[in-house]
Amino acid sequence: MPPRSVPSERQRRLGAELRKLRNRAGLSGDQAGALLDADRTRISNIEAGRIDVSRNRLYLLLREYGCPAGPLFDGLMEMAQERGKGWWDEYGDVMGRDALDLAELESRSTCVRVHEPLFIPGMLQTEDYAREVISAVGRDTERRERYVQFRMDRQRALTGERPTTYHAVLYEAALRVQVGNVAVMRKQLLRLIEVARLPDVTLQIFPFEQGPYSAFGRPFLLFQGSTPELSTVYVEHPQSASFLGDGGQVDEYGRMFERLAELALPPVDPESAPESHEGRDSLGLIQHMMYNL
After folding, report:
1. Which candidate in 101, 113, 192, 251 could, as Cys together with 222 as Cys, close a disulfide (CB 3.0–4.6 Å)?
2. Taking a C-beta distance cutoff of 8 angstroms, is the pair 174, 206 a contact?
3. Percent of the chain scored above 70 by pLDDT?
4. pLDDT exceeds 50 at position 1
């Protein structure tokens, strides 16, 4: 398991929201600690995400902080209940904290919006495609297979009892960068069409001819929480990743995604008749790529 000294994104986010509510209520750390028969150090550790808070104590704090009944109250209570209850914890021996947090967010969010400029997103990858991508970074065979299985298990969020609404906008380059051999790529492109049949999945392609792409060159994921205050942005960097929870940042990436979706080709609709495709759409571009392989 990851070191207990490394807070999960859930712990950090819960703690940050509690700190905002406490400050809004005008209470000091000592006053908040007294509510729990604890000192200010415990409150500081909770707000920093270093330790969890039980549902009973969280309920008390939220009431005293003046958090009204509603989506935020319920969302924070649910976050406290979820500690240590995820399938992703089984992979704590090989996956880093960021990867485990990513899987938890995918499972917990009501809607996931994804932008990927270069590769097929992990939630849409075939096993063979994922294996090729992971092999490229030099994993040994045993760890590589655990990484692949983790990526496949992440896809449960699309088909579980409460499937997550998923909207992906891929740059055309993600279809053209050959990962593995031709068979791997054909199977992967077919997978994109198959997954687009799921009722809660929307898939769009941003074509080369749409024009300058530099403003949208970074991969990111937007996780919609049960209330806007609990939404999160995940931004990938070459050597790390960032989880952003500031409302202004979330709104900025939300506007960026809306612009991407507006400029991209119409979504894949595998059920539509061929004659209904009067103009170019995402399905037609994927099929064209498959034909050229």
Report:
1. 113
2. no
3. 91
4. no
Interior angle at CA 52, CA 46 and CA 57, nearest 5? 80
Quote the CA–CA distance of 18 and 2 in Å, as a whole number: 24
Task: Give the confidence band of 143 by pLDDT, cuts at 50, 70, 90.
Answer: confident
pLDDT over threshold 70, residue 227:
yes
| Amino acid letter for position 219 | P
> What is the pTM (predicted TM-score) of this model?
0.89
Instruction: Report the pLDDT value the prediction gives residue 125, as an integer from 0 to 100.
Output: 97
pLDDT score, position 293: 85
| Cα–Cα distance measured from residue 34 to residue 38, given in angstroms and rounded to the nearest whole number | 6
pLDDT for 19 beyond 90: yes
The partner residues of 261 in beta bridges, in order of sequence, read none
Mode of pairing for the β-strands spanning 220-224 and 232-236: antiparallel
Tens of pLDDT, residue by residue over 155-199, are: 999 988 888 999 999 999 999 999 999 999 999 999 999 999 999
Which among 227, 275, 233 has a CA at the least distance from the CA of 254? 233
DSSP string, the chain: ---TTS--HHHHHHHHHHHHHHHHHT--HHHHHHHTT--HHHHHHHHTTSS---HHHHHHHHHHTTPPTTHHHHHHHHHHHTTT--GGGGGTTTS-HHHHHHHHHHHH-SEEEEEESSS--GGG--HHHHHHHHHTTT--HHHHHHHHHHHHHHTHHHHSSSPPEEEEEEETHHHHS--S-HHHHHHHHHHHHHHTTSTTEEEEEE-GGG---GGG-S-EEEEE-SSGGG-EEEEE-SS-EEEE--HHHHHHHHHHHHHHHHHSPPPP-TTS-GGG--S--HHHHHHHHHHH-
